[in-house]
Amino acid sequence: METNRHYDTIVVGAGPAGLTAGIYLSRARIKTLILNEGITGGQMILTHEIANYPGVESISGYQLASIMKKQATTFGCEIRSNVSIRNMQLNNELKTISLSDGNQYTADSIILTPGGRSRTLGVPGEDHFKGRGISYCATCDGDFFTDKEIVVVGGGNSAIEEAVSLTKYAKVTIVHQFDHFQAFEHAVEEARSNPKIKFIMESVITGFHGNENIQSIDIKNLRSGRTKPFKTDGVFIFIGYLPNTEFLKDKIELNKRGEIVVKPDMSTNIKGVYAAGDSIAKSFRQITTAVGDGTIAALAVSNYLNEVKSKQKHLISA
Ligand SMILES: Cc1cc2nc3c(=O)[nH]c(=O)nc-3n(C[C@H](O)[C@H](O)[C@H](O)COP(=O)(O)OP(=O)(O)OC[C@H]3O[C@@H](n4cnc5c(N)ncnc54)[C@H](O)[C@@H]3O)c2cc1C
């Protein structure tokens, strides 16, 4: 067991924000460890195709994540994936992170990049049919619905883009609660011109039914108030996200949505602790914005560490 190892910076989370911070810090010869709960890459690995990352016309999320990981480790960044954080001590100058496997790490600075996860509908039957017809990941499960009829719930960019991608396999009906979409206009136009996509607007799902697998849903029209059964083989839910910040409750300032409150340099209310990516309070959540936040956090940490070191030198020479 490797206990009590010390780093200049520990980054929590290995999505695009954390990996970018890892690239910048390690390249600046700052001893960096990334601790990640899941597989390296974060939400990127759920995306079948990324076509809006500048300089790369089209790439799978898995590939982009692999490249970012390689870049970080080539510069000397250490990454530990599939770990579970048991405790964090952030308030002292020397920060401590303890893992469930017994390892403990200390650092002079921390960057929090835990990202977010899909929001669920909270409708009866949803938990029962998760993985039995209900999915939150087109890339992971789309293929299972080849030649079937499926429903996509949501009206933002993820919902519309994933609905289009799912037409590779299945006929899609988009169910959305409003009479208009929040997605970018070009994405909506692409969906509207796709003959394999139908739309049910101003409606919500109120129930899931089936035996082993899902067979039908109840759809309530919000205008008329009437609920009708609708036959379907699967339901993909893309209705937004929740920040993965439960483990930070009472440790750092969060807003009422659970997002980490940061200043423009990505510093938090605790000295030496920074945050970046989808978990911070902001309007737009994309790989590019996560990468931008990760860059700013890494550069700010670099300045912070210079201050800490010059303070230490001053104390020694005094
Ligand atoms: C289906 C889908 C399609 C998308 N398509 C696109 C697209 O085409 N283009 C685009 O720009 N964006 C897209 N996005 C959004 C993009 O993936 C996110 O904005 C981006 O990944 C956020 O990066 P992040 O580093 O902040 O967080 P994440 O990618 O969420 O990574 C956070 C990481 O932190 C880890 N973590 C969480 N909690 C802890 C903890 N307590 N301890 C340790 N580790 C922890 C997680 O396991 C994860 O690996 C898509 C998202 C989804 C879900």
The main β sheet shows up as: 7 strands, mixed
Small molecules bound: flavin-adenine dinucleotide
Helix- and strand-based class?
alpha/beta
In N-to-C order, the SSE pattern is: EHEHEEEEEHEHEHEHEEEEEEEH
Spans of at least 5 consecutive residues with low confidence: none
Q: How many E strands?
A: 17
- Continuous helix count: 7
Shape: elongated
Give the gist of this structure:
The chain has 318 residues and is of the alpha/beta class.
Features:
alpha/beta, five-stranded parallel beta sheet, seven-stranded mixed beta sheet, 318 residues, binds flavin-adenine dinucleotide, 17 strands
What would you say this structure looks like, in words?
This protein is α/β, with parallel strands linked by helices. Helices cover 26% and strands 26% of the residues. It has seven helices and 17 strands. Strands 1, 2, 3, 4, 5, 6 and 17 form a seven-stranded mixed beta sheet that branches. Strand 13 and strand 14 (227-231) form a beta hairpin. Helix 1 (16-27) runs parallel beside helix 2 (61-74) and helix 5 runs parallel beside helix 6 (185-192). The protein is elongated and about 80 Å long. The protein starts with a strand and ends with a helix. The mean pLDDT is 94. Bound molecules: flavin-adenine dinucleotide.
